[in-house]
Write a structure and sequence with these properties.
Length: 395
Amino acid sequence: MEDDNSKPVPILDQDEKDPTLIFGTASFLNDISSDMIAPIWPNFLYSYLGLSFLLVGFIDGLALTLTSLSKLGAGYASDRTGRRKPFITGGYFLSMISRIGFALSTGFITITISKAMDRLGKMRGPPRDAVVASHTSEKTRGRAFGVLRAMDSAGALVGAIITFFLFAYLGYIGIILLATVPAALSVIVIIVLIKEKRGKDVFKGVSFSGLNKNLKLFFVASTFFAIATFSYSFLILFSNDYYTPYQIPLLYILFTLTDAVSAYPFGRASDKVGRKPILILGFLFLAMTAAWAHIATDWLTVLPLFILFGLSAGALTPVQTTLVADLVEEERRASLIGAFQMIVGVVALPAGIIIGYLWETFGALVAFDFSLILAFIAALFMLLIRIPKPSDSDQ
């Protein structure tokens, strides 16, 4: 992606005011929308549309892969053009439109196209994260991304609660259509409250040479972890034997509540003790989730699955992005955040297919054991990384 012959273009020069809370508000609203749908999504695919475990795994894996590709493209284009807001606004708009596509879907092809549109909306991530990173020092960056993740998860919690109370009255399609309302509000927040100014020329083309050695090792560890990661859909399908469809949103609420409550403390802790211990802990939480599946044999013992899974998400989501932002310079920060998210996302498609195949062919416990082994390998790779504690200034 080297572009040395091109004339540098201005990159975004943000106002001095920290936009983290504005982005957090938009994320809160969008996640209300997303997570009104999320608790019913696995059974919407499996029961309502009649898809197999393998196809559920394929759709969830494809969704993560498209998410990562859209983030890479948007990150590069954002750095290249010096614009952040169009990609952020466009991303929220695509997510809003996809809700209508879900409601109109009748089978595998139509739901896959609609899910692809929803995931392409994730293009908003790297440009948004680059703006937040530019307003924070290394010593406060984990806290800022923790705030974003906490507001994401709080929105997810509110959305899941809405679904719990209204699903019996509205059904699958009614809930999905209602979810377009907060999604539309998130678009309005960005359009009205985020202001963009152009500043000095800094873009010199994106090169992936000369990356920090520790960042390369982190890419490897995260790749193993991404292959190990199963989607929450499989946890919900695993729980269908112990909970009714109307009770399932409670499990999702438990997951999102754990994620929401833990994200900010984990992000803040990474500012104090370093990124590495928190990331290893997040990897091990996923391994423990997979191991606990052998113990979960009734409605009560299923609950720790969702707590452990929530702790893993709460630890990893803010801190992974923070570490990448720490280890690259500002002029290619959005591009490399996007590149990192692409690398871990591209493997999500084969990972989803593998886990779905193992589940359908050999049973759930074999699929969870596969995840357990690879998550542990990823944690071992993290031990090889040498990452200094955050300093008071940016790199």
